[in-house]
Amino acid sequence: MKQARSKNVAITVFIALLLMPVYWLLNMSFKTNQEILGGLTMWPENFTLDNYVVIFTDPSWYNGYLNSMAYVTINVIITLLVALPAAYAFSRYKFLGDKHLFFWLLSNRMAPPAVFLLPFFQLYSSIGLFDTHIAVALAHCLFNVPLAVWILEGFMKGVPREYDEMAYIDGYSFPRFFIKVFLPMIRSGIGVTAFFAFMFSWVELLLARTLTSVDAQPIGAIMTRTIGASGIDWGVLAAAGVLTIIPGLLVIWFVRNHVAKGFALGRV
Amino acid sequence: MSLTLENLSRIVDGVDYIRDANLTFEAGSFNVLLGRTLAGKTSLMRLMAGLDKPTGGRLIYNGEDVTGQSVQRRNISMIYQQFINYPNLSVYENIASPLRLAKMPESEIDRRVKETAAMLQIEPLLKRFPLELSGGQQQRTAMARALVKDATLVLFDEPLVNLDYKLREELRAELRDLFRERQCIAVYATTEANEALALGGTTTLLHEGHVVQSGPVMDVYRKPVSTLAAQLFSEPPMNLVRGRVFDTELSFGEDTRHALTQELANLKPGDYWFGIRPSHIALAPANDDDLEIPVEVALSEISGSETFMHVESRHFDMVTQSMGVHQYHTGAPIKVYLPMNKLFVFDTHEQLVHTPSLASGREV
Domain ABC transporter: where (chain B) (predicted)? Predict the structure, then answer.
């Protein structure tokens, strides 16, 4: 009994410490700049939604969100479209060098994004892709596709080959089998893969910032450029931070039951 | 209507999955493929289904070469050892799926699904999903899906292995009834000799990718062409003892000699393999001419209401199977009795030379 209580206390303290910065961000977003700079207050004394109003009315703010969402969505779609057939091939067929190729895919992720900064920048500038959503989405695919193939392959291996054969015997053609029978069977895997692709693309800043200037600027980049003549607008910045966390929370909520399996690359 | 396999082979990287299989399956027949694990039962079925490509030989259906035809274009069904159903479709939709793909009118689909479900006693489950069902019900669903489309070839790949004993017997009996009226070719793979006997029809013995023997089940059981066939089609495997025949006598070792009975009188003097099924070895003499052999008990195990004993003598080991529960201590000297009229005799090349004659009313 005593042990159980001390365990509870420990967990509570741990979670409180973890949530501290998140709470502080939320706290700040409802305060005025005067209050933030004025002194230490544990909760907003003059509760205000003005900071959020600024973000939802100023195009230079909300376009950042729209841009981020656009290239993240494009990235997730491309990643899945490319990774699903690739993962199926790895899970079902043997071919020359398949194991090496499979490992090489994962080793792609070992390179830091900064390495690819210059080549991407030069390439996109010269073919006119610079400052477009697709440019960022494609750049992120370099990191997301290998991971997606790894995760999906694990899920697909979990489906016995007999399912494929049964469908052929019943008269399904391959494309029809793949879309109507196979994809529903690994839908949690697809969800988890989409989540990982989303997460990487949503928080990645270096490539996204370098490959865009105005039209496709992500929210992360905008947040780092809020220092105006009157100094830093703390309240608005905090509100922007809160709004950046929310999409991630929503996505986690949808895949919460499958994330552990996804982290183990489907091999649980 | 018949399916003929002509020198059908599948050899991958020097390993014989199936080598030179020559078999004919008639419409309306029930065929059992019997063999141990890795004997090639599944390989043979996959070749017949068109799921694998043979590396040699031809597959002929009604005089037409169908060797390279795709699975989708053949009218076949297959039932696996694992319970394979579409997990995201209801039992009804599972059974209906082959019909839907064949673009059958909705009323006909409904009629057929209900009829097949009734046949397999899963009518009340039609609205449920496969993973909510018990193993037996899942396998019934898979069978319903296989039977609903009037396939010309129905393949069962050890379908009852993952079910419990009681359910297995029940489903096996039903299965046999279901196929009595059908005009399709049914092929059933199993590792169990007893199952092959229970199912009847035609039995094909497979071993390491080769067809050992094929024919009506009783012919194969009574006249195994070789020691291998005899051992495959006997559970536990048939005992084989090296022996020598003299002019009128028979010996399994140097010290004991037995007079030859009428039945074995025309064996030429020489070395032979003598085979006897474990269930035919008695612990008490039944006839005067039974061979009495002193042995030592090496192991005694009780299974249900039967006792299996591994016994040893200086020259051979044997397994006996007897009804009732008997308890013997390891090392106990006992006598076993081999009825002469139950002996199979094989020559030194392990080919059959003598089978026990069928005495009226007596099991062999």
Answer: 3-233
